[in-house]
Design goal:
Radius of gyration: 25 Å
CATH superfamily of the largest domain: P-loop containing nucleotide triphosphate hydrolases
Oligomer: single chain
Distance between the termini: 33 Å
Number of domains: 2
CATH architecture of the largest domain: 3-Layer(aba) Sandwich
CATH class of the largest domain: Alpha Beta
Strand content: 35-45%
CATH topology of the largest domain: Rossmann fold
Number of strands: 20
Helix content: 10-25%
Largest sheet: 6 strands, mixed
Shape: elongated
Structural class: alpha+beta
């Protein structure tokens, strides 16, 4: 049995349907993420799981028990917010001890659990400090420690890394993975950051307009998106309107003025000749070389470099194709310093293999 069950849950605010008949389950010990743009309903769902809001219809069960009549403070669930929500007049150890005191635990129990949790988040040397004496990352660790100190059945995390700078955010992602693994507590994480979700999660539910578009493991979401929205929302993608021309072991697609390309046929993909949709391919699947240099790939086009983005380990090239469309290609930077393999306006050849990319019919 799943630890958390969301069944046909909806929530409306006047004419706005914030959550629209959503169903999913979360397994014990799982790092589960709700991912989507602002206003998609992910935080509303989290608030209903926590008990801060109630669904208009549907059920939320934890360990098989309907939570409808259980107030937030009685649920074995803790929430960590982006704002940390620490008590400024309490020290680190007092903040962490607070939920244990509210639960009526003894002083000896509290002392033991607080020390163990401080060890867990590497903050023993900050135990007597106040929140205003801590860095952003340290305050976030205190908030996590307070949420984990009495080992809730479920820890809800609402954009907990949103206030951190990029380097610290990356460090905290590693710490979150370790905390979840070491404690075994089930995490339900809310974020709009795609890379963060891919790095942290066992499974991800991608939301749009109150509905779940796709629920899958990170590699399947990235490599096998179900529709254009998921493909475009998860990472960078090249997307071109396409029509199915022939169906065999592979697909032949017509990309309009650009011409024909060969694409893989996915398992259980039901297609017909003449069907319209989109061909997608990730930039890292596209090879780029000088236009005069031949390629053995079945799909190849000559274009010109319109722009490029140097981001350290790779350079992303934006290439203008003959039909007026553009395609992005990634090239690793193996040379030291600012590696620029192509200049603006250079003629280049972009290509990809028959098994790369995918056709989407929605």
């Amino acid at each position: 049995m799943a630890l958390l069950e969301i069944k046909e849950v909806s929530r409306r605010f006047s004419d706005l349907v914030a959550v629209d008949n959503v169903s999913f389950s979360v397994n014990a010990g799982e790092f589960f993420t709700l991912l989507g743009p602002s206003g998609c309903g992910k935080t509303t769902l989290l608030r209903m799981i926590a008990g801060f809001d109630q669904p208009d219809s549907g059920t939320i069960t934890l360990d098989g028990i309907d939570l409808k009549n259980t107030p937030p403070e009685k649920r074995p669930i803790h929430t960590v917010f982006q704002s940390y929500a620490l008590f400024p007049h309490m020290t680190v150890e007092q903040n962490i001890a607070f939920p244990l005191k509210m639960a009526g635990q003894s002083e000896s129990e509290i002392k033991t659990k607080v020390k163990a949790t401080l060890d867990l988040v590497a903050l023993n040397d900050r135990a007597k400090r106040y929140p205003n004496e801590l860095s952003g990352g340290q305050r976030q660790r205190v908030a996590l420690a307070r949420g984990l100190v009495n080992r809730p059945r479920l820890l809800l995390l609402d954009e907990p890394l949103g206030a951190l700078d990029a380097k610290l955010r990356e460090q905290m992602q590693i710490e979150l993975i370790a905390l979840q693994r070491d404690t075994g507590v089930t995490f339900v994480f809310v974020t709009h950051a795609q890379a963060e979700a891919l790095a942290l999660s066992h499974r991800i539910a991608v939301m749009r307009a109150g509905k779940i578009e796709q629920l899958d493991e990170p590699d399947r979401l990235y490599g096998q998106p179900k529709n254009r929205f998921v493909a475009d929302f998860i990472g960078n993608v090249n997307m071109h309107d396409a029509t199915v021309r022939t169906i065999g072991d592979t697909l032949t697609l017509d990309l309009g003025k650009l011409g024909k390309v060969v694409a893989p046929l996915r398992k259980n993909q039901s297609l017909k000749e003449g069907m319209s949709g989109a061909f997608i391919i990730r930039p890292e699947q596209v090879s780029i070389r000088a236009a005069s240099e031949p390629s053995g790939d079945p799909n190849q086009f000559v274009g010109t470099v319109n722009d490029f983005l140097y981001i350290g380990d790779v350079t992303t090239y934006i290439v203008d194709l003959p039909d007026g469309a553009r395609i992005e290609a990634l090239l690793p930077n193996s040379a030291p310093g600012r590696a620029k393999f192509f200049e603006l306006g250079d003629p280049v050849r972009v290509s990809w293999k028959a098994e790369a990319g995918a056709f989407l019919d929605s």
